[in-house]
Design goal:
By secondary structure, this protein is of the alpha/beta class. The protein is built from seven helices and five strands, in the order E-H-E-H-E-H-E-H-E-H-H-H.
Length: 253
């Protein structure tokens, strides 16, 4: 059974790829180019599938080191990337010795077919990748590609920060509206309850029983409304307390 070394700094990507390959291949994992290189030098795999944009050592640097190391240069290497997706990225990758350039996500059956093809090709007698030609032009091209990707990443982060600030501002306004509603509810409660107390106190001055009953019925209705207001106020207070705790946790985080 062939052994494949998969390299990615994203644990979820590693898990998904390992799950796809498990059963058909032996699988080893690494989280960046340097870790992969050290692992391969100790125990060379039959194939390496690597992401490109990674910390410590990226895929381009890994490929250059891979093809320049005598014990590894005959082992095929596949780029599997979601970040480097432009034609010039693929062109540069192929120029330094990558066997296949695959953009994520890829249909499982197509990815497995590509892996089978590359493994079969690597077993041929004439399989011997050229040594990478690292000249000034190649290094300049690599730097331009890296700068472009980092610039794109910065723009993405700035967009995410702006979106987060907008959400925080919307949340702040919602909290303020809740505070205003609570204040209005408390004021309305007082405005109704105070006159009601006076009415109840003066009921003894009413002689007509029918009028007294009508007033009492009105008082009962108002009292029921006040109870609902009190319940709503209590519920709203709980909401406000929850939001305050949420804000505190967010600030601490």
């Amino acid at each position: 059974m062939s052994e494949i070394l998969i390299v990615d700094d994203n644990e979820q990507n590693l898990y998904m790829l390992e799950s796809l390959l498990r059963g058909q291949y032996k699988v080893k994992m690494a989280h960046n180019g340097e870790e992969a290189l050290n692992e391969a030098l100790m125990s060379p795999p039959d194939l390496i599938i690597t992401d490109v944009l990674m910390p410590v050592m990226d895929g381009f640097q890994l490929c250059l080191r891979w093809r320049s190391t005598e014990t590894l240069r005959r082992i095929p290497l596949i780029f599997y990337t979601a970040t480097y997706t432009e034609p010039q990225d693929e062109k540069f990758a192929m120029s330094i010795g990558v066997d296949r350039f695959i953009v994520k996500p890829q249909r499982p059956e197509l990815l497995l077919n590509t892996i089978s093809e590359v493994l079969a090709e690597s077993k041929g007698e004439d399989y011997l990748p050229d040594l990478p030609k690292v000249d000034f032009k190649a290094l300049q091209e690599y730097n331009e590609i890296l700068f472009r990707k980092l610039q794109k990443k910065v723009i993405q982060l700035e967009t995410e920060i702006a979106h987060r600030k907008m959400l925080q501002e919307n949340e702040r306004r919602a909290h303020q509206q809740i505070e205003r509603n609570l204040e209005q509810m408390a004021a309305l409660n007082d405005q109704i309850r105070n006159p009601l107390t006076v009415i109840v106190a003066r009921m003894s001055l009413v002689d007509d029983s029918k009028t007294k009953e009508q007033v009492l019925e009105a008082v009962r209705t108002i009292d029921e409304i006040l109870k609902r207001l009190d319940e709503g106020y209590a519920d709203s207070t709980k909401v406000r307390e929850f939001l305050r705790k949420h804000d505190q946790i967010s600030k601490e985080g």
